[in-house]
């Protein structure tokens, strides 16, 4: 069954020449973003002010992102200066947050054919922005600053229509495509390199409290409108068809489709995509498996 | 089939010692909210300003709610002062609105395990806030102030992504969980103590005008993404599975699942939950009925 | 199967006496809108300021719409004056944009029984407003002003929770009812007089780049929550049931329902609705076809 | 010496037919203001929204004034809803504040030839608005709510460039013309029917604390840029020339001019102006006294 | 007596190579402004967004100025889009307004040694901006759109602390230096190439209505804090000392100083400054005349 | 002659027990400010949100001041986040700025009898806030970031009506009382412990460029409305009467009054005030000298 919008990039994906660690990678991506923004500012004067204020005037990706999120998520009662401060202090001081941001940027750039530049993702992708804000809320939650974490969740839900409980643990390299209506519960766990389309629910079982939300393995792809409920395991590399309702475990490298969901794909090649050209998981390979079920 | 996020509270639910009427109950809940906000303000200075402006500085629940809604729903062309005035005048003068607000707060506090305090619901739950604003819009609609009611509907739809026609009649003790994408049509009626998850549609039949939307009985539970269309009756205590499409009546105490929906549960114990410990309807009891249909 | 909210208007639909071209029609609709707004301002002083600023003070529909969109879509980093200028210059100079706006207003007024006036649609319908803003973004995209077009897309997605890629080609006379959660991909094409409910996805196939999104024929009706994926053709006058998942072509005048979708309707009368009384396609005629599949 | 802008009205001054008390007078003035605003809204669509939101939509002068002041004096950290509430509760519950507002409106309307309507004063005169906000701050001061009173003083000083200590006691029927730069100290007292031009200082003596600011009698006229320092008495009906520096008492019905000030006028006719046609004090009668001192 | 801040420019004043008319001159100045802004944006990233939004993104001086004024003078009840529209329509359609703007820019650039670039004046000089907004208000006044003109006056007085009645007629090439506290009455007339410092009052006489304010000739210089009252004539090329109080006519090419003012300068060379190097009136030549009067 | 508002504090001035350096002093003052704000928040719930957001939630005086200035001086085109960042980075990294802020707070607290707490000054004194913002602008100027420094000057002039050229050098322990209308030119120098009332001008001579503004010695007191023009020296401990016009040097410990100014005081006791109880210069001692000149 085809899931949407998740192909290989039409042109060779951008790669960092850096062999060094995360810092080098962050620096390279940030340099790309600034170069893209400068190019766009030159070609589109009407957008130049926006590009300077959100990207070009900043000295780091953390500052740019914190500025952008602060201005997106602020309200008349939660001021942009407060949020900016909160994001900047949290994000710039935590290397794991910064490397996750870079991995998410790469995920969008490589897996979403509509994503033509890093700066496009940074500026315009509500899924990307919601995830970055969630990571800060999650860190606050872990520090037992729960009221502040929940206030952030609320702002993310209002502004982006993405509702992720700050307790949820989310890996790196996440693509939250289109993102409107995504709901992820408190005890959900999402692995690395997962792609989640809009209207996806990782919901609870109805068990009071406790561990009651799905566990999503690395490299999983979840189609638009899929609903996964309860403390079930979606194995590594599995694919969940659009509109599916999943209430049980799904084995690794398997495809589940339908309402309620049925397993339709056999074991696939167990090769995790890593967002580098030539190694990317083919998010479309299970289309053929589902063709019998459709018109 | 498991529906999500609707279990019993892990700890004993808070109860009001008051034996008196609604006023006592409102006073008790408001005192709780203020105490919670003060505690959070003490522990989290970054949030204290927000908590004081939205809760602690106000002399009543009506004022706090009106302030919060006014600032959430205002825009550059619909000023916060106008909306604040409208909410305050309507809400503080109508005891039934105030008791409905209290019942909704209790519903979230008891039925949603992620809801750890009344103030969390008041501040952060877009479903709760959307319902409160709708109640005011509905009252305006009943007073034939339709253009203003429709303008409110539009603001609620923009800000919370919850689209409830001001003509719809909604009972008390409603939990609108996560809430993004909920659509409720003009002639819909929703009973008391109903729980509705996100992406739920109570839509029209296509009949021109007239009574064309669902009638939802007391204590009904509607799972995420369920679509109920037409002037159908969902009986008291019924449960609608996540992702279901319902086009016909569902008898009381029955469960309907699937697209299109099938009845899967027999008659259950006809005991309406009333959000007090020991009497709460078990929203999860129908999970077993659906296990055959899933992977 | 009933799809919702798309009947004939209960009262005779308003018609323009003008026999002339689009200009006459636009003038007539604009005159109606102003008259409605004046009537509402007289009856509801609390709303008068809003009605004057958004409608009555303006000399043309283009100005009113540009003002309204500029104030709806602005942010602290994309100022209302910039957006107003952009919308006004683009909209007022392009007769095809203006006639599309008029056709969309008519579509809402005629097909949606909850739409009681043109001004109600202009002011309050997020689907209508999202489409109008998209048309401007699409024109910018065609002029190769892509960064600006994508920034507009992002604002529309944030504010209205409607995510339409600026590359998508959308016809005239579109009703985007309720609209929350609608996603339309880059290479999608939507014909004239199409009605699309909320949560509808016109998504990609997973093919990298290229022509990968659905093609929707004239007069098609797509129910709430339907997901259509890939470069498939939905023929003229076809109907897609609520909650359906469509992965293959659907012939003209045919109905598809279910997840995955099945064809349930035979060929119907090939008469395209044109939003004038007596000629309107009956969006509800296929309800009977689906009754077997439901409870 | 000519003082400026304080002549008789060119046309017969408006009078209230009401013989009743302050309530009747307030009602009559409010009716005038609304009629003026409606007339202006009809003739100037671009201003209609502003006139409706600030005047026409309100049910009383207190509400209109509180709305206008709340929106003028708010900031990102002192919200309009808070200020609106504060002004409305204070102003509407205190008949003396309301009658003072009416008297000030009359003072501007009668004494300032540039003031062509009551609504012009209510909307546009920063001196009038600063005085009304001060009256509320003064009441808070008297209730020992000093931090809030001082915060209001600060906002008035920022927005209107008028700095009146909340402790200062100000009479009724005050015309604060142009108003920029007016400074009035904590222990100053200003009588009724006083006219004060811009840049006027009623400052302290340098004595530590205590009663250290001027006492201004009824019907006094103080020209632009005059500086009066210390606990001196300016007698009833006295006139202080523009640019004068006054450090000693000035007897009633006397004129003082120059830096330092000299008495130049003899005793004048001891007839207090009361802002009704034919009885108004002639604010220009002392011009002749000063003609020797000028070029 | 020295008046302040009005010397020759230290470096050769910029000249337009254009020999053509006003249009050429406007184009040349606008090109200079954009070049300055681009240079500053390159050197100061923190300011680049501001410079792009206010200057570089605009296609004409009228658009840039209208955008800047709209955003400076807007309030929560008078939206920036409304003001932008008003300024743009008025300014861009009236060549005399445009040439006056250019002349005022030149006046600041040449006469104020602290004015180092045209863009500095356009962006930062509240006197310049107040005058430009006044010119629009004056045109509205002349068109009998008085309520709107008075609302503009009020906004200018709030934001810039400059209070110019919209009826006042102001020439070209005006330098309103520092500007805070300037008050100019309804029937005042100010000639061309006049320099006015802060705190200057051109006030009324106290005559009821009628022609009651000063008439200021071409090339006059009025020092800080000077007060000129009544329908007096200040002759061409005259100079009024700082802090002076002027109540009678002042002959051309004469200097008046003191409170009350005395004539101290004899006839000077009757050569009007025209803001071109070598021909500029020496605003400081009368310093020597006053030296006897000072300490 | 009495100058106003500058006496000894009525109660013993607050002293720091710290014997250490500036850091200890800053810490002590900051602790006082927080304690005051907490006390006020407890007693006045309506102000608590404001006090938390501006003071109590911050971890240092630099953060509190930067937040407050950022929100006061921001506009729709110069965002609060940008200004906050700029102030915070500049202020927190420069000990001399921080010690100047503390000295200014002490100056207001000790010399102004209306200043009843440090927090009152920090929150409400536009003169204090204008000086702090100027110090940042001056530092930018010194770093040759002139366009940004001038933009700050412009915002300070708009918001506080205080116009200080960023080139001006200002000492520590400055009291800018009331502050409206103060103008200080580019080459002015102001010593330590200087008190300046509102409407004071330190203006230029008319010499083109160069060093053309006054030099004000330590401990000088300048009364309201005084105008000092040209590169003149006002000696240590001198006093300038309100409304004076000073065009020549004034010797140390001397008093100058009048327009034009005359020396009226003999040499006084050469004891500089240092804002500690018992050592404070008596700002009122020259009153007796001037009594002959007045009425």
From TrEMBL, chains A, B, C, D, E, F:
Disordered: annotated span: 1-22
GO annotation, cellular component aspect: cytoplasm
A Pfam family that the UniProt record links to this protein: Hexapep
PROSITE patterns tied to this protein: HEXAPEP_TRANSFERASES (PS00101)
Top-level EC class: transferase
Residues of the Serine acetyltransferase N-terminal domain: 29-133
Keywords carried by this UniProt record: Acyltransferase, Amino-acid biosynthesis, Transferase
GO terms for biological process, alphabetical: cysteine biosynthetic process from serine
PANTHER family: SERINE ACETYLTRANSFERASE
Family: Belongs to the transferase hexapeptide repeat family.
Stated name of the protein: serine O-acetyltransferase
């Amino acid at each position: 069954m085809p899931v949407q919008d998740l192909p290989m990039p039409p042109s060779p994906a951008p790669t960092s020449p850096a062999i060094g660690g995360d810092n080098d990678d962050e620096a390279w991506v940030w340099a790309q973003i600034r170069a893209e923004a400068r190019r766009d500012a030159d070609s589109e004067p009407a957008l130049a002010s926006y590009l300077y204020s959100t990207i070009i005037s900043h000295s780091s990706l953390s500052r740019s992102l914190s500025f952008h999120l602060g201005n997106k998520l602020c309200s008349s009662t939660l001021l942009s200066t407060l949020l900016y401060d909160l994001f900047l202090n949290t994000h710039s001081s935590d290397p794991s947050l910064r490397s996750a941001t870079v991995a998410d940027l790469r995920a969008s750039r490589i897996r979403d054919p509509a994503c033509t530049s890093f700066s496009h993702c940074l500026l315009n992708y509500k899924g990307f922005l919601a995830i970055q804000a969630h990571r800060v809320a999650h860190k606050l939650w872990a520090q037992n600053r729960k009221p502040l974490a929940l206030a952030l969740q609320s702002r993310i839900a209002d502004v982006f229509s993405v509702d992720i409980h700050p307790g949820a643990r989310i890996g790196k390299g996440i693509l939250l495509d289109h993102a409107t209506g995504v709901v992820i519960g408190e005890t959900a766990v999402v692995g690395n390199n997962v792609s989640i389309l809009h209207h996806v629910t990782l919901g609870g079982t109805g068990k009071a409290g406790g561990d009651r939300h799905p566990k999503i393995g690395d490299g999983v792809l979840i189609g638009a409108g899929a609903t996964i409920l309860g403390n079930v395991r979606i194995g590594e590399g599995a694919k969940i068809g659009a509109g599916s309702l999943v209430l049980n475990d799904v084995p690794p490298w398997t495809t589940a489709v339908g309402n309620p969901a049925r397993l339709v794909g056999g074991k696939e090649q167990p090769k995790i995509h890593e967002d580098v050209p030539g190694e990317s998981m083919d998010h479309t390979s299970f289309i053929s498996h589902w063709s019998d079920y459709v018109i």
